């Protein structure tokens, strides 16, 4: 039998629902569950639910962690985190203190992270979400739209023209390249450029954030349609 | 090959169907219908009607079993229900209560 081998490969204490399996009804447990097939109804775990790319879950889900690479239709209530990976597609509401939606994932529904404590979330976010922003190619596209408002300001103050030209790397400075670009430090002494200096910083953060909902929204519509066909 | 395992802490109340082997270490209530083999391991508890090709039971099963090939009751199993299959094996030490029907081929 290949059974014992498969078991050990998947970690001993682990439940797997294979690709051709359909479970309809109520499923509860205290161990990790990997879904490669279909689960319908209700799913309650005190540990982690992993929905693999071939997995389909049409259920109300209550777990500690959920990692969705397949399809989930229904609400997810997680005590810790919910992650939609690149291949994840989901329709339903998410209620979890940590919600991670990666570029490429599609999602339609509400997200509720509970009480958002300003001190806590930013600390956690960089750890997991950083690859997301790096991989996102849409960021440069968003920048031009935010840049235009600036030129009108520039003409009024000739001195700022140099500041606007910011994209071209500061000519003299130390060769430390990537870090120095976002916050152009060359003109600290002058009083006038000061408004311009903070502006880039704002623009940076702003351009990094907005694409997230945008990309997700666009992807969601497309993929939801596809999903209905398969049903 | 693909393999499905219901771990020991899992409880399923409902229906399981599929085309692959299923290993039960936890609890399943309701109905199981497979086209392959079902293994109820020592820790497994099944309160369900079972319809598969093969069944191997080392745990506890309450319910009727219909297999197109073989049913095997292993040493420490406890089975209550009717069994219908062309081949039925009951090992020494197994406890079983119910009817046995091996007439499937003639049908």
UniProtKB/TrEMBL annotation, chain B:
Pfam families: Bactofilin (PF04519). The lineage of its organism: Bacteria, Pseudomonadati, Myxococcota, Myxococcia, Myxococcales. Belongs to the bactofilin family. InterPro entries: BacA/B (IPR007607). It comes from Corallococcus carmarthensis. This is Polymer-forming cytoskeletal protein. It comes from the Bacteria.
């Amino acid at each position: 039998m290949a059974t014992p081998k498969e078991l050990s490969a998947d970690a001993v204490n682990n439940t797997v629902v294979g690709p051709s399996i359909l479970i309809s009804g109520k499923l509860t447990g205290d161990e990790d569950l990997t879904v490669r097939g279909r689960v319908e109804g209700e799913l309650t775990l005190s540990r982690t639910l992993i929905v693999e790319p071939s997995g389909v879950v049409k259920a109300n889900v209550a777990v500690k962690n959920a990692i969705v690479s397949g399809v989930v239709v229904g609400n997810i209530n997680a005590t810790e985190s919910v992650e939609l990976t690149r291949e994840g597609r989901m329709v339903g509401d998410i209620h979890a203190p940590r919600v991670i939606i990666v570029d490429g994932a599609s999602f339609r529904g509400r997200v509720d992270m509970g009480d958002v404590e300003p001190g806590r979330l930013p600390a956690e976010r960089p750890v997991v979400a950083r690859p997301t922003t790096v991989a996102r190619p849409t960021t440069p596209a968003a920048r031009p739209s935010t840049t235009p408002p600036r030129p009108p300001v520039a003409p009024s103050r000739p001195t700022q023209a140099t500041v606007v030209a910011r994209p071209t790397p500061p000519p003299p400075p130390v060769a430390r390249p990537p870090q120095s670009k976002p916050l152009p430090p060359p003109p600290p002494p002058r009083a006038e450029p000061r408004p311009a200096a903070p502006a880039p910083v704002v623009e940076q953060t702003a351009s990094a954030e907005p694409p997230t909902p945008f990309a997700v929204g666009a992807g969601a519509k497309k993929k939801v349609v596809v999903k209905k066909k398969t049903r | 090959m693909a393999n499905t395992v219901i771990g020991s802490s899992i409880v399923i109340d409902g229906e399981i169907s599929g085309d692959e082997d299923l290993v039960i270490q936890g609890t399943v209530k309701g109905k199981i219908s497979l086209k392959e083999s079902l293994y109820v391991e020592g820790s497994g508890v099944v309160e369900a009607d079972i319809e598969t090709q093969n069944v191997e039971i080392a745990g506890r099963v309450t319910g009727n079993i219909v297999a197109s090939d073989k049913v095997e009751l292993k040493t420490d199993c406890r089975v209550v229900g009717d069994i219908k299959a062309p081949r039925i094996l009951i090992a020494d030490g197994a406890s079983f209560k119910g009817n046995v029907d091996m007439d499937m081929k003639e049908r």
